[in-house]
């Protein structure tokens, strides 16, 4: 007999399942090692299995001021660049979605470009632009650099939401007696709210662990990812880096999980991977 | 009779496209009035001008003898049911229906009793807490109606409200809409491209074509006495005979339209009528209770009906020669 068993077409084949499991392991096993070596007693090299386990690195990290300065700077940069990205990205989305004018497609492309452009290009061009304009490096130059790609994430999310919404919603609200301000607060904002929030959280996570653009725009300042890079060069007290990495995993995981929860059942979380 | 709506010389252009061209229209209070036309004929734009969503380039819009041309939509006593319903997706049925009452700051207790009443009118009691995404097309339609009717508007504008529903549901909603209109005794202005819908529901119809109104009349008058070739062709089935052809074949000095039910298929023993044509059958379409028969003779194309009768076995085949006839009283002269 040619067909011995009826195959369920919805079920994945064994090969595909094994492949998927390997894929997931490949992506997540390194994370496990990071967490594991945050507890090791050996401070110079990564030997497996770790000779012993300790929590002392956590207390050392708590006492190191340079780490907390870096964390503070990173949070400040991520927060301000996300907020400005929310304002600019939402406004740009609203404008480009509704209006039609000559060159609209080019402006859309220019807005999306920073996320497609290699960070090193964005970094170099910003650095030389700051140099030409005579702007000294400061927290604000980092924020400007981060805002360029944070804005794209918010813009993409909001545009996707606008595309899925009925164009008649605003008219319907006006029809039912609401004026412009009431329409904005009762209809437009609640509808875009989750898209803006999801975009903002992704933007925050992107900004928080950005290295390349930051390297070019930070001057002498140290954000958390930059501190980690410089720490890796020094061979002493390696597990400290791992402890900080565990912190970063936690901090970036929460907003990303929340963003995907907010936009569940939708497919508009664009630009979630840079 | 009270005039619910008057449009005077309305013109509207989108870039270079003329959407509305010198529109004059008067609609009486309590009428079920349809704007009927093919897509792109300007009927929806006309509705948006009435609702205040589009500003006409020139002309006047009056509601109950009050000029409202420059008044924004939220200050007009008119409500719209949108083609895609435009229900607020983040609100449940109750909140959607309640929206205008909330805006008007009507006390909560009164809001609740009004919502309850209108939901029972549109048979949606029990669905208060559902989101629009959890409703079927017909139910969404009812929510949209309830949301507009709770305002007690003097005029309700409906933009192809049944377009998204399947045939059975559409027929059922047609009856319900008509009942609602009788119950609330308000003016309905109904945009549709479905001539069957317009004919069966309306008190009067305006036929739109290319931004102009071709004819305004009652359904049976529009069907029996179409003024232009477009109207004759758009409403129901018709055979159009051009002025040239009419002169050559029938010695008649005007273009005319003839409905298929008025064309008789002659048997040999029948007496001669005023118009006779020898034709060949080119297509036969089964329509249930009758056959639609398309015939041709040189440039002349005629459509007639043949009713199916169990007793008779009068059979027509493709390619048969038939003799068709009709009288002068059956035809409508049109401007060619």
Structure described in brief:
The complex is a heterodimer of chains A (274) and B (336). Chain A is mainly alpha-helical. Chain A has helices at residues 14-37, 56-63, 65-98, 104-116, 119-133, 139-164, 169-175, 180-208, 212-217, 224-233, 239-262.
In words, what does this structure look like?
The complex is a heterodimer of chains A (274) and B (336). Chain A is mainly alpha-helical. Chain A has 2 domains: 14-54, no CATH class; 65-262, MetI-like fold (Orthogonal Bundle), CATH 1.10.3720.10. In chain A, 72% of the residues lie in helices and 0% in strands. Chain A is built from 11 helices and no strands. In chain A, helix 1 packs across helix 11. The radius of gyration of chain A is 23 Å and the shape is globular. Chain B has 336 residues and is an alpha+beta fold. Chain B has 2 domains: 3-234, P-loop containing nucleotide triphosphate hydrolases (Rossmann fold, 3-Layer(aba) Sandwich), CATH 3.40.50.300; 239-333, RNA polymerase II/Efflux pump adaptor protein, barrel-sandwich hybrid domain (OB fold (Dihydrolipoamide Acetyltransferase, E2P)), CATH 2.40.50. Chain B is 27% helix and 32% strand. Chain B contains 9 helices and 18 strands. In chain B, the strands form 4 sheets. In chain B, strands 6-7-8-3-9-10 form a 6-stranded mixed β-sheet, with helices on both faces. Chain B has a 5-stranded antiparallel β-sheet with strand order 13-17-14-15-16. In chain B, helix 2 (93-103) crosses helix 3 (108-121) and helix 2 runs parallel beside helix 4. Chain B is elongated. Chain B starts with a strand and ends with a strand. The A-B interface holds A 165-166, 168-169, 171-179, 182, 186-187, 190-191 and B 51, 53, 72-74, 78-80, 82-90, 99-100, 102-104, 147-148, 151.
């Amino acid at each position: 007999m040619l067909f011995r068993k009826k195959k369920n077409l919805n079920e994945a084949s064994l090969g595909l399942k094994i492949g998927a499991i390997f894929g997931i392991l490949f992506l997540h096993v390194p994370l496990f090692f990071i967490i594991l070596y945050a507890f090791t007693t050996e401070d110079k090299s990564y030997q497996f299995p770790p000779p012993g386990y300790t929590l002392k690195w956590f207390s050392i990290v708590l006492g190191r001021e340079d780490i907390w300065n870096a964390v503070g700077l990173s949070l400040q940069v991520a927060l301000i660049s996300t907020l400005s990205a929310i304002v600019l990205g939402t406004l740009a989305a609203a404008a480009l979605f509704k209006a039609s004018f000559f060159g609209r497609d080019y402006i859309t492309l220019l807005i999306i470009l920073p996320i497609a452009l290699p960070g090193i290009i964005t970094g170099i061009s910003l650095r030389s632009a700051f140099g030409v304009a005579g702007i000294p490096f400061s927290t604000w130059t980092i924020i400007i650099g981060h805002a360029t790609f944070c804005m794209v994430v918010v813009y993409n999310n909001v545009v996707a939401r606008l595309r899925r919404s009925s164009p008649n919603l605003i008219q319907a609200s006006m029809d039912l007696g609401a004026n412009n301000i009431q329409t904005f607060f009762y209809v437009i904002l609640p509808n875009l709210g989750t898209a803006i929030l999801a975009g903002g959280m992704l933007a925050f996570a992107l900004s928080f662990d950005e290295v390349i653009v930051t390297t070019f725009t930070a001057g002498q300042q140290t954000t958390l990812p930059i501190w980690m890079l410089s720490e890796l060069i020094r061979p002493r007290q390696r597990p400290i880096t791992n402890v900080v990495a565990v912190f970063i995993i936690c901090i970036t995981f929460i907003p990303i999980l929340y963003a995907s929860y907010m936009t569940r059942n939708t497919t508009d979380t664009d630009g979630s991977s840079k | 009779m009270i005039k619910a709506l008057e449009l005077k010389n309305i013109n509207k252009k989108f870039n270079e496209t003329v959407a509305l061209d010198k529109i004059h229209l008067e609609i009486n209070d309590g009428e079920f009035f349809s704007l009927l036309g093919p897509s792109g004929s300007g009927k929806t734009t006309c509705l948006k001008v009435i609702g205040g969503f589009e500003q006409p380039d020139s002309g006047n819009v009056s509601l109950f003898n009050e000029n409202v041309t420059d008044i924004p939509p939220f200050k007009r006593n008119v409500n719209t049911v949108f083609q895609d319903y435009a229900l607020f997706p983040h609100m449940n049925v109750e909140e959607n229906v309640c929206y205008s009452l909330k805006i008007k700051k009507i006390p909560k207790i009164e809001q609740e009793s009004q919502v309850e009443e209108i939901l029972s009118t549109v048979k949606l009691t029990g669905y208060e807490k559902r989101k629009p995404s959890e409703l079927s097309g017909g139910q969404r339609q009812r929510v949209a109606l309830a949301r507009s009717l709770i305002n007690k508007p003097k005029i309700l504008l409906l933009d192809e409200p049944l377009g998204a529903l399947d045939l059975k549901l559409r027929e059922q909603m047609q009856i319900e809409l008509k009942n609602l209109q009788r119950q609330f005794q308000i003016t309905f202005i109904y945009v549709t491209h479905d001539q069957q819908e317009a004919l069966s529901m309306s008190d009067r119809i305006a036929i739109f074509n290319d931004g102009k109104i071709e004819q305004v009349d009652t359904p049976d008058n529009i069907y029996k006495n179409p003024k232009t070739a477009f109207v004759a062709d758009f409403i129901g089935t018709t055979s159009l005979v051009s002025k040239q052809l009419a002169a050559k074949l029938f010695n008649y000095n005007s273009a005319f339209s003839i409905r298929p039910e008025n064309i008789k298929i002659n048997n040999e023993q029948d007496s001669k009528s005023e118009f006779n044509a020898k034709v060949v059958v080119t297509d036969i379409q089964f329509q249930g209770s009758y056959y639609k028969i398309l015939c041709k003779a040189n440039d002349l194309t005629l459509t007639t009906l043949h009713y199916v009768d169990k007793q008779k076995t009068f059979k027509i085949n493709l390619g048969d020669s038939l003799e068709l006839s009709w009288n002068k009283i059956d035809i409508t002269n049109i401007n060619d």
